[in-house]
Inverse folding.
């Protein structure tokens, strides 16, 4: 039976979900594709574990448990203190290898380039390598062996639909609109229901919908990176700095502690209430939207018709609406759970299968 | 440059749109994939045209024009009176060949099986070969070289999402619900707006939304075939006869002329009005739904919540909602133009690209 080596960078929430899904799917995978998936290397932010024969189910479980408990791989018997990702690819790769990048750093690019140069595949949930210079995006994606479904819309097949349905059928794209943040979806739906902005941010933070510092979500940069990945997938040579991004808080709140930020939020309640009311007078509602048209992308709060696909979106679901030559009267719409580790991990697994197949 | 031979069965509305899209995309296709697409054979319902060197742009345009004017291929200088599809595959195929089936008959199966046996690819918009005996479906699809995106939801990537996102990520499917008839979508949206059933059917017929005999749409068999293809894609060994299908007219109206049928339609207005009113009392609305769950499929008029994805669907758009282990609170939803030759032709082209790539 043919073996496919997996080398995984990152063992956070998404990383652990990917390991769990691979373990759960292994037998069916062998039966369906005649391919055996083995992990020869895993790294976390501090250390790594390598076994060229492949880690056992029990060993992988032990690593996941150690990480879940807040530890690191070098706390386990398998790990050692090294974090040279390029060396890991060099050591743990074979002919049939897929590198999985589920980190959130821009430090993986060299290792990914080495993997692609060796003929390996790569599956990314990490947006950073794809949102650096355009030339790096081109280098990474030109082989066709790097897939990145989970970077936009988690498991909702936004990238696959764009590449393999719309672009593959030579259907010219006129406009893409999307809501790509579950957190900001939760906020805008709450605003529509009349809730206060400060209360919604506090609740989202308590529920774990936001990063520890909610400004990381409210600033919009994560959505901007997704818009950039879509734009570049369309072939547009944009840079991140060329995308106008509307932050949901004023610049003077960007510095200072998280506690100060949270304490200052009620000052924004009234301005948002007025903005929501103005939209509602025109049968519209506010959504945090990534818009792509005519070679340009922008990201920010938009008034959208309540009856539109974006206006009907509820809660933390993600949505992409493609306006094309074929989909000219109503857009092609994809919608579903865009947040949470399971959707993202499912998208990574779909990429692994596509690369292995 | 590598050449890919296209053999196309069918030159009706969809078939002509496929030829036009291939001609329009040819240059970009060569540039993008380094592959040259040539047509070596085309058949219509009476005759065929074969040229092993590949037809020129002008020749293909002439065939499309002849058919658009109501003629047949054997009216042109290229056609000859033969309609043995297996012989056409035998003569016009080479190492790199894709057979395109855009007919609506069950007479293409033998030729498709021969093509697959030779190692060719096949792209189907024709549902009939896939909705015969389950054993034939297995034979046709087991090689992985037969694609059928356009059979369900036209260009909306329902099949690709099911196969390459959901099944590929080993995400168990609990339930699929879909609206897969633009015609019946037009009718149910109209009923919701208070219009009479008879008036809506007459209008749909005038607009060309229905087959010449509207009973072909109202009977639900076309939707049942789509449900069967989805069920079989899930691996369920169902037969068409095992799918309960609700017809939108009573059995006594199944015989007789189209004119008699149209004249009898007003007798159905009051029953439908009552049914719509009963649904609306519960904040629901009627949709013609294909439902798949627990190994079973059924097709018919359902009361769905107005606030659900199906309830919010408008007009002739198609929709598929996948309820899975990952998409458990809200479904993964795909929505877009499901009717018309252009969406279908786009789906066929995406299949050709996937097979060629």
């Amino acid at each position: 039976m043919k073996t496919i080596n997996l080398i995984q960078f990152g063992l956070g929430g998404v990383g652990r979900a990917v390991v769990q899904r691979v373990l759960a799917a292994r037998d069916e995978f062998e039966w369906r594709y005649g391919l055996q998936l083995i992990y020869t290397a895993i790294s976390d932010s501090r250390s790594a574990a390598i076994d060229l024969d492949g880690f056992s189910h029990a060993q992988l479980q032990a690593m996941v448990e150690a990480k879940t408990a807040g530890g690191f791989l070098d706390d386990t018997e398998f790990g050692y203190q090294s974090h040279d990702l390029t060396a890991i690819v060099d050591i743990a790769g074979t002919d049939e290898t897929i590198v999985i990048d589920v980190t959130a750093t821009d430090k993986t690019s060299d290792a990914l380039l080495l993997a692609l140069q060796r003929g390996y595949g790569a599956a990314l949930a990490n947006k950073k390598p794809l949102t650096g210079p355009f030339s790096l995006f081109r280098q990474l994606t030109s082989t066709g062996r790097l897939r990145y479904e989970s970077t936009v819309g988690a498991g909702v097949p936004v990238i696959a639909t764009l590449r393999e349905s719309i672009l593959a059928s030579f259907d010219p794209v006129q406009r893409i609109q999307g809501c790509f943040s579950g957190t900001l979806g939760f906020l805008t739906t709450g605003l529509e229901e009349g809730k206060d902005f400060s209360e919604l941010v506090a609740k989202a933070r308590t529920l774990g919908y936001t990063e520890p510092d909610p400004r990381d979500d409210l600033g919009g940069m994560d959505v901007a990176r997704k818009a950039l990945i879509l734009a570049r997938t369309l072939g547009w040579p944009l840079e991140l700095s060329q995308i106008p991004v509307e932050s949901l808080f004023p610049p003077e709140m960007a510095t200072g502690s998280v506690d100060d930020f949270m304490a200052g939020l009620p000052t924004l309640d009234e301005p948002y209430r007025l903005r929501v009311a103005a939209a509602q007078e025109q049968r519209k509602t506010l959504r945090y939207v990534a818009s792509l048209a005519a070679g340009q992308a922008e990201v920010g709060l938009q008034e959208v018709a309540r009856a539109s696909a974006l206006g009907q979106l509820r809660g933390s679901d993600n949505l992409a609406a493609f306006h094309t030559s074929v989909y000219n009267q109503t857009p092609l719409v994809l919608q579903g759970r865009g947040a949470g580790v399971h959707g993202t991990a499912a998208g990574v697994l779909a990429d692994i299968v596509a690369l292995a197949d």
